[in-house]
Structures are given as C-alpha cells and as structure tokens.
Write a sequence for this structure.
C-alpha cells in the first residue's frame, strides 16, 4: 500500500515555481527540496539569503527514490550534493553554507560568543518551540491540546522577549529567524484549528511574525496555500506518516 | 521535600579529582560541572584536549543555587562563564571552544567545510539516535521494552561503527565525534551488566575502538571512581531518576 502522504502536489507553485524555474542550470550545489517541507525551507532560505547559486531538484521524501537514497540514506529533504559529496540534516547544511561561502552575507555572527548565543537560540527553537507546536497540531484530545497550546505560546513569548528587532539578533537577519519562519508562516493552522493567536504571545511577536512573512526570501519560496491544505488535514487528524509526525507520536527527537 | 538525586557523592574522585584540583585558580573561563554528568564530560574532555585554561566549579544540578540559575536559567550543567558572560548546552559549548580558542590545539573539528559538516552530521546522529536509545534501555523496566531498546541501541551503534575510519572516528584526527561518544562508551558497562548489551554485538572493530577511546588520557582524566557512579545509575535502572533527561525519557519527550 502506497503512503498516502506521498500523494502531495508534485511541484512547487506560485512564486516558488518561478524561483524553481530560475534554478534549473547545473551548479556546484544541487539542492534536493520538497516544496512543502519546513525543514527543506531552512536550507532554501539560507541559499536565497546568501545568493549562492544552486540547481533545484524536487524530491518527494515520501517516495524514497532509489537514486535519492544514495544521497541521503534517510531519504529526507533537504539534502545537497556539493562537488560530488552529499550532505543532509537542515542545520548541518546551513552551518556548511556559512563555512563554505564566507564572502556571502553571513547568517551567524562572526564573534564566537555571539555565534554560540545564536546557536543556543536555534537549539531553543528546535527543542522548545517546534515540538509543542507539532504536538498541538497532532494531539486529538482537548486537554492535551490545551497543554501544548500553553507550551507553544510560552516558548514563543520567551523568544519574543529576546527579539532585538527588527530581526531576532537585531539588524542581522540570521539562522535564528530562518529556523522559526517555516512554523510562523504555518501558524494559521493552529490559529484556525487549535485556538492559537499571535496576539496571545504578546511582546511584539505579532509584528515580528508579520515582518518574517514579508521577507523577500520567504515570499519567493512560498507555493500556493491551497496545496498545503491536504497536508495539514492529515497532521490535524494525526494521520500523517512523515518522519516528523512519527517522531512526535513516539516522543523522539527530530531534526 | 528534597529529591533523592541530591544525595549523590558531592565531589569528583579518582583521576577526575586530580583534574579538578589542577583547575582551581580563577580564570577567564569558569566551567560549571557535575562530576557524574555525561553531557558535562563531553565539554570537559574538549577543554582537556585543547588545554584551555579553566576554573572548575562543582554544581549539583538538582539543587539549583541562585547564582547558578543566573548563569543558566535551565539550571543544567555543563555551563560556562566566559569574560563574565554565560553560555550552556554541551554541543554549543564544544563548538564555542573551537571558535573562541583557535590557537589551542587540538582542533576538534576539521577545517575543511565539507569534512566539518560530515563530522557534525555524525555528532547529530549520536545525539539523536545513540544517546536516546541507550537512555531508554537503561530506564526500561518491561522486558519487551528492554529488548526493543537494546535492538535500537545496537543498531544505532552499528551505524556509527560502520563509519569509524580508525584509529578515531574520522581517521587519524581525534575529534568531537569521538568526544560526544566517549561518555556513553565509558558507561556502557551499566547496560552490559544489567541489560544484556555487549560491545561484541556491535562488532569486533567497535570493541577495539571503544577500548581505545576509554583509555584516551582526557577521558581517563575526567572519570571519577567507579563506585560513586553506582548510586546514580541504580536509580536510572529502576527508572527512579529525577534528572531532566530521565523525565524526558519517561514522558516520551525529546531530551533537553
């Protein structure tokens, strides 16, 4: 039986489709992406922000294509092939782009302490914001949803209080913003179905979220919203079979 | 009511005590540690390998003293104060040591961007797949859960073992990949004695690599006397431990 999650719209649409069309020439970096994947988005945003040339290849992580498994044995996006060497894990790729392309706009501070501090907040997003957000989407019982809603809002508020503005670190748009963006622009799902609101977070979160959504790289990597709906519905019914959905159900770490 | 985990032996012993004694002078870098904590040991080994001057301060993470909570609101070790500013998270600290002390060798990550990324990939795998399965194995009470967790642990370790170039993970260069594995390797006697694990089950090369790693001087220098760990791991084996890691495993949540 084929995985129903594999039945997602096969290509990027809207602004993202234009961007994909502009990145079909062979380049040193081949970027394997799922247009709908929030983790692949991190790498896509980093590539765009840094202006690094890349060749975009659509790869549905649910298909587990044999050729792709040679690149990433986990069969997950994002992945890149750089000068023949494969790399995966969204944050590992983002750090690689910082190291390998030092003359492009940096997404992490140069100062070692500030850099460590940024990494601490990236870690916070991954450990304290995304898991309750995902659990909130996938939990079916109202009392469990209530717990996760509170946890999500509290974690976002902790971040909100640290935002220097206009971006998390201040003037420099960084990887901290990038790891947040894919969930912030999906927060309409928990607003519509789980009682979330940006206003409930307070401390300037709403304004920050709106700034993130308007960032050029974010707008350019967006597909039409209607193609996401089918995906969200499966997560909302806790029927999604992605690695993320399963990890959430099993209480395991993920990315 | 105080939690039982507070009653652990209060100070490092054995080789670790000697190391602690050598690091009592005030320094720009203050290292807040729990002598028994495997996450602390990652950063501690890194400091020792790199010869970075540090002042060692023992902290009981279950008895959260006010000054320490100001350093790390999570109240967890390891943490540092460097030139008066605080930092925590074992892997963030290890990366910081690489960035902030470029003149202090060993360099524990390759300089080449792709090789560096490759090392980080495996550090990530160890943290996400090896450590949680070993923790689950230690805390599992039910025979089926133990069997499952043992299978997962061996499988994860075999995946790592297959990548070891020898003598160290990356080959001739001792690196953070070895550093993040070491604390769990030196504790694997717990799952050998109580959960049916053997290094041989992972592979013959693994057994050799593990033996090599646990005899590395920086690893030995951060180990306390074995008997003092027993009080701690007995609680984990009965799934009565109250650390954040233990609670996360019980709740089916990602590790802090």
């Amino acid at each position: 039986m084929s995985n129903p999650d594999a039945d997602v719209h096969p290509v990027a649409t809207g602004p993202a489709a234009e961007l994909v069309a502009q990145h079909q020439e062979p380049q040193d970096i081949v970027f394997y992406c799922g247009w709908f994947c929030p983790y692949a988005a991190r790498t896509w945003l980093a590539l765009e922000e840094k202006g690094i040339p890349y060749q975009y290849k659509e790869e549905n992580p649910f298909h587990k294509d044999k050729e792709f498994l040679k690149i990433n044995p986990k069969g997950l996006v994002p992945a890149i092939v750089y000068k023949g060497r494969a790399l995966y894990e969204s944050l590992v790729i983002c750090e690689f782009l910082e190291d390998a392309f030092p003359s492009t706009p940096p997404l992490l501070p140069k100062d070692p302490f500030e850099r460590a501090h940024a990494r601490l907040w990236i870690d916070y997003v991954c450990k304290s914001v995304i898991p309750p957000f995902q659990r909130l989407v996938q939990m079916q019982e109202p009392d469990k949803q209530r717990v996760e809603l509170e946890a999500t809002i509290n974690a976002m508020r902790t971040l909100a209080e640290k935002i220097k503005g206009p971006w998390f670190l201040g003037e420099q748009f960084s990887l901290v913003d990038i790891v947040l963006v894919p969930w912030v622009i999906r927060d309409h799902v928990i607003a519509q179905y789980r009682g979330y609101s940006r206003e409930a977070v307070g401390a300037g979160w709403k304004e920050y979220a709106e700034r993130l959504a308007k960032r050029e790289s974010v707008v350019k990597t967006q597909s039409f919203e209607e193609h996401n709906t089918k995906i969200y519905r499966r997560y909302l019914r806790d029927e999604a079979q992605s690695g993320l959905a399963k990890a959430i159900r099993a209480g395991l770490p993920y990315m | 009511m105080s939690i039982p985990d507070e009653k652990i032996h209060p100070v490092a012993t054995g080789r670790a005590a000697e190391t602690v004694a050598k690091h009592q002078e005030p320094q720009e870098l203050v290292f807040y540690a729990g002598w028994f904590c495997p996450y602390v040991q990652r950063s501690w080994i890194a400091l020792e390998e790199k010869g970075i001057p540090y002042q060692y301060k023992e902290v009981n993470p279950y008895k959260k003293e006010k000054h320490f909570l100001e350093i790390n609101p999570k109240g967890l070790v390891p943490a540092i104060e460097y030139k008066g500013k605080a930092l925590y998270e074992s892997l963030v600290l290890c990366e910081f040591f690489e960035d902030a002390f470029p003149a202090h060798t060993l360099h524990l990550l390759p300089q080449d961007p792709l090789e560096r990324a490759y090392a980080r990939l495996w550090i990530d795998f160890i943290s996400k797949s090896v450590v949680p399965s070993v923790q689950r194995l230690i805390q599992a009470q039910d025979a089926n859960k133990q069997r499952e967790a043992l299978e997962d642990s061996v499988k994860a370790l075999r995946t790592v073992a297959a990548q070891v170039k020898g003598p160290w993970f990356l080959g001739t260069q001792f690196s953070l990949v070895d550093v993040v594995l070491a604390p769990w390797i030196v504790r694997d006697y717990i799952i050998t004695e109580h959960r049916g694990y053997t290094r041989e089950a992972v592979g013959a090369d693994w057994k050799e690599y593990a033996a090599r790693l646990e005899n590395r001087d920086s690893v030995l220098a951060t180990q306390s006397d074995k008997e003092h760990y027993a009080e701690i791991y007995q609680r984990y084996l009965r799934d009565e431990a109250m650390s954040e890691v233990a609670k996360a495993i019980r709740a089916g949540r990602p590790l802090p």
In short: The CA atoms of residues 208 and 218 of chain A lie 14 Å apart. Residues 112-138 of chain A form the longest helix (27 residues). Chain A has 13 helices and four strands. The first strand of chain A starts at residue 29 and ends at 33.
